[in-house]
Design goal:
alpha+beta, tt1808, chain A, 2 domains, six-stranded mixed β-sheet, two-stranded antiparallel ribbon, 8 helices, elongated
Length: 268
C-alpha cells in the first residue's frame, strides 16, 4: 500500500490522475475499474442522487460519480457528493466536497472504507455508505478508522443540507418522492409554491362563492320564500361573482324564487 506523508503538498481536487468519464478511479496508486451497477445498486444510487439534488442547501451543488483528487496517489469518484458552488479562491477550480456517499453491498464495504479514509484525510467532512443488501446507513469515523452503523431513525443534520435527511429515506426500497417533496417545499421551490398558491386561491374563491350562495338561500328562507330543492341547487350552481351579487341583492326584495332565478339568468 502506498503511504502518504502528512507534509506532502496536495494537488487541487479537480486535478486528474485518470481521464474523466473513462470508467476508472485510482486508489493507492492502483487503477481500479468502476463497474456498471446491478439493479439494486443502480436503483439506490439513482435515488440517493435525486435526494441530494433536492436536499442541498443554498450555496451547494450535488454531483454523481465526480472524481476528486484525494492525494498524490488517489483520484476517487464517490457515488454522490455535495460541494460548495463557489470556486476555490486559491485555485479557481472546484472546491472539495463536504459530503460524500457510497452505495455498497457487503463485499464492497471494505473497499468503500479505503476510499472513505482517503477522502476524510483530504478534508471531506463526512462520508456515508448506503448498504443495499442490509438496508442500513453507515458513517465513516476518523476516530475509529472504521464504519459506524447509523440507527434506522437517524438523520443527517448538516449545514450543506436544507433539511435533516432521514437515513430511512436513503436506504428504503420505496421511491424517494415524498422526501424530495419535503425538501423542495422547504426550499420554496417556485413551481411548487406557485401550484400551492394557485390551489389555495381557487379554494378560497370556491369557499367565498359557496358562502354567498348560502347567504342568498338564508335571506329567502328568512323572508318566507324557502327555495324548493331544484331552486336551491340552481342557486348553489351559480359561480360567477357578479351574478351571485345580483342574486343576493334581489333576494332581499323579490316576491318569487322562480322569478328571481329567471331574472338572474337574463341579466348580462
Amino acid at each position: 500500500m502506498v503511504t502518504h506523508s502528512p507534509s506532502q503538498i496536495l494537488p487541487a481536487v479537480d486535478e486528474r490522475l485518470i481521464m474523466p468519464d473513462a470508467g476508472y478511479e485510482v486508489l493507492d496508486g492502483e487503477v481500479v475499474a468502476v463497474s456498471p451497477a446491478h439493479e439494486p445498486h443502480g436503483s439506490r444510487h439513482s435515488k440517493v442522487s435525486a435526494l441530494l439534488e433536492a436536499y442541498v442547501a443554498h450555496g451547494y451543488n450535488a454531483a454523481s460519480d465526480m472524481l476528486t483528487r484525494a492525494s498524490a496517489f488517489d483520484d476517487l469518484a464517490p457515488d454522490a457528493s455535495v460541494y460548495p458552488i463557489d470556486r476555490d479562491p486559491s485555485t479557481g477550480g472546484r472546491q472539495l466536497e463536504e459530503l460524500a456517499f457510497e452505495v455498497v453491498s457487503t463485499e464492497t464495504l471494505a473497499h468503500a472504507g479505503r476510499k472513505a479514509a482517503r477522502l476524510v484525510a483530504r478534508g471531506v467532512r463526512r462520508v456515508f455508505a448506503i448498504d443495499v443488501e442490509r438496508s442500513r446507513g453507515l458513517e465513516w469515523s476518523a476516530r475509529t478508522e472504521g464504519w459506524e452503523i447509523l440507527a434506522g431513525d437517524a438523520v443527517i443534520d448538516d449545514p450543506a443540507l436544507v433539511l435533516p435527511l432521514a437515513i430511512h429515506d436513503l436506504v428504503a426500497a420505496a421511491d424517494a418522492d415524498d422526501a424530495v417533496a419535503r425538501a423542495l417545499l422547504a426550499k420554496r421551490n417556485a413551481v411548487l409554491t406557485a401550484t400551492i398558491d394557485a390551489a389555495a386561491a381557487q379554494a378560497a374563491a370556491q369557499a367565498a362563492a359557496q358562502a354567498k350562495a348560502h347567504a342568498v338561500i338564508t335571506v329567502l328562507v328568512a323572508r318566507g320564500l324557502a327555495p324548493a330543492p331544484g331552486q336551491r341547487a340552481a342557486i348553489l350552481a351559480v359561480r360567477d361573482p357578479e351574478a351571485q351579487e345580483r342574486l343576493l341583492i334581489a333576494s332581499a326584495t323579490c316576491t318569487d324564487v322562480e322569478r328571481l332565478l329567471a331574472d338572474a339568468a337574463r341579466a348580462p
